[in-house]
């Protein structure tokens, strides 16, 4: 078992040259743009040449509602990828990139854990290949061009009070949430209220992760709404003529990044949109590229299945035409106990009753996922304290739900610990049973889409909203945005909007407080709760202890 | 001759794999961290292992005062490097990196021109290897930690009115020059006035370019003054505990970048501090590494010799213990004519008299440079309209100054056009005649250092300043900063502070309007004029026309 901290295991990794990892997927060295010896981007020209090839099988890893006990969704994604490699399959993993800023607040983390990790860990928590910096630059170029446009005469007649495009930094900086800019006199423009979000909250990030190619990227960037005129007509990024230059800044960032697991399974780590006000999945271009190159692609979605998987299906798969072949739903005995009502301090003792109670959360997710027409397999991510009776209780429960549950020990053993899971997942995917369909049709009204998700996925009895919000949705429908999917922003800790309500609550009310149009990304965000788009640093930020040690390694980041 | 635009020549470059370029300097492939196939960083461990090796010869390229006619300092730097390679020497070039933001205002530029260029041009004008992004992140992490420190109790008792550390972005954004932050209530901290500078103006940039190694980098970062208390004692970055995390963010950026000229001469392109409020040279670590690996290192300094060369000698060489062996002073017939009083429209016709008049500027620089004890060679960067009589007039004049002038045709012919210059420069450097010494001793008072530069380099009759400024200098001396060199910030267009005063003015007055202490970088800035540290975009920003063409190449950036 893995008694060592993740960072130690990661540092001891026997990393292979990235060209060797690319070679496993048939990528010739000249089409890998290296960033050091252990990271590379896959060249656009090579990706363009893959069109027409047959796709591999797509496997989504999702989880029950997160608890402080931990579920290990990414760890299982990595473990399953390694398990597939181990049983002789050509497998690839697709996950999101980490945001730099938050690592200086709370400690950063591994991609995975124990012996199921993606490396290089330090770089992936720092600048990596610069994608997020490119997004920051592209976003802020547009911001500068908007204020510049107003400064030099405002041909577009932007209403200064209605500039909705803010600025971004990949930094936790509460001081930038609300600012007044352009102070200091005539030379500096027109003073106005605005602020900064963290880079992962940028619509540019969501677009990068949904765009088909550079042409589609530019089209979507141009369609972003940056402001409104006095008559409330929207001003688009293309009206400011920023879309071309933004695309140039994002050209390299659009190429997916290739790294490796500890067991040398290829991993595409690309893009990282927020899972609340955005869809929370890695880029479409990475997933598509992986599907062309590998027989099995294991990917994951943010948060629990009620948010992450729903958005993966209804936004990413719908828009990119992806057809998932199997879903792996991750649970831990400890997390099920918390869903069964136990406190974090009570998790060590065996408690089969609490596990059975908590299975209600698991069961709800199984049925929801089946509702999308995709076969479901449960992965029990093993922790050392789990008892055999507890594990058996989950397996029995899952069978009763018409699915199967596999105990996985990848944290302690790597891919060896997921062989059984990998074998079954491959069989199920190969059987071609998936009849994937999104939850609702494009033609449904925006309001009904929100209701549909709330009722069918969250089991809410009602969705409430001001008439102002409903009127806004109707206005967007009149402007031609009615076909867009909805992107729900609510707490990830419960099916309801109350983070304390674990298990499988019924009959609750979902209040929609605000709606936002991401016209370039192509979804309407329904905000059901407080969403923070610029985090702050804690009283004792992790940054205070981060430093290089004598060996030149990073201390304090993990 | 080169009739093609620089960008076309750059695109047609027959680029060699960067490992081959590194091989010319004896850098093994495993010590080159590639960024794509044509850029790499030289690994820190390899650099550390070079200690004790003999240094090559150091050649500084500088120029007469810049005019709208153009001098071609970087072009000559590149041409001389190629010329040295061509005559069989192991040569390397060291120049600064380009800032991303300004390229979206006015068009970006080549590193060099014609057939004397460094490539890849597009990448060098965009994200390159991410160094400036890393500096932006490190700078803004400190900013966030300062406001966070105040928010959580302000243990250091920072005076909110005296926070001097601002934020930075690599973007021309006038709206950010003066801002109020932390608005919106208790959760967002204490509102205060502040603003953003462009990244190249960050003290972090100056430090990265002067630091010996990562340990020295961290020490210097910790010594930066970020605020003052009510009792006016300084608060340092180390008091906020930001120095370790900033160093981690800058670890990769501290490794010099290696690229190549069109003729495959190795070029280190690393760091890019402002040439006004900072010293305007590439990094010490790049120059030192190049000196260990090449027999001849050609580098350049910002602006004309009165600013750039003076700072190169008095700040960079003094602090890094570098001993330049030869200075190449670049002039063009056209620029000399402008210094001789002609307008830009009058430059095409032969005018030997104007050339002779303009030589006063050249002569002043020659004598100034000789004053540092370093042999001077003049390079006449040839333009097609130059007449033989004009060229002869310059050569005669320069001989009268006790130096020699060589006609160079590298723009049209590459290294072939600088063979004569390269041969002589190598001979002079090899002869070991240089007796380099900085202009003033460390022990001189700060005020006298300013006077010394103004009188001996600018030929001013007087330096004026408020008693407030003199008192500030004395206060810094009392605090132990008296040994620092001064960094003059004045117009680059004249020896005087009047940009219209060409030639070799005498007896002018230099008014010092403001002084700033860069305690981490290690110099005191004397500002003699208006210095803009956050540019704005013009009415029609270049960004509006920047886009990818069908071939995926960048259009409109150049």
TrEMBL record, chains A, B:
<feature type="binding site">
    <location>
        <begin position="67"/>
        <end position="74"/>
    </location>
    <ligand>
        <name>ATP</name>
    </ligand>
</feature>
<dbReference type="GO" id="GO:0035999">
    <property type="term" value="P:tetrahydrofolate interconversion"/>
</dbReference>
<dbReference type="InterPro" id="IPR020628">
    <property type="entry name" value="Formate_THF_ligase_CS"/>
</dbReference>
<dbReference type="Pfam" id="PF01268">
    <property type="entry name" value="FTHFS"/>
</dbReference>
<dbReference type="InterPro" id="IPR027417">
    <property type="entry name" value="P-loop_NTPase"/>
</dbReference>
<dbReference type="GO" id="GO:0005524">
    <property type="term" value="F:ATP binding"/>
</dbReference>
<keyword id="KW-0554">One-carbon metabolism</keyword>
<dbReference type="GO" id="GO:0004329">
    <property type="term" value="F:formate-tetrahydrofolate ligase activity"/>
</dbReference>
<protein>
    <recommendedName>
        <fullName>Formate--tetrahydrofolate ligase</fullName>
        <ecNumber>6.3.4.3</ecNumber>
    </recommendedName>
</protein>
<keyword id="KW-0067">ATP-binding</keyword>
<comment type="pathway">
    <text>One-carbon metabolism; tetrahydrofolate interconversion.</text>
</comment>
<keyword id="KW-0436">Ligase</keyword>
<keyword id="KW-0547">Nucleotide-binding</keyword>
<dbReference type="InterPro" id="IPR000559">
    <property type="entry name" value="Formate_THF_ligase"/>
</dbReference>
<comment type="similarity">
    <text>Belongs to the formate--tetrahydrofolate ligase family.</text>
</comment>
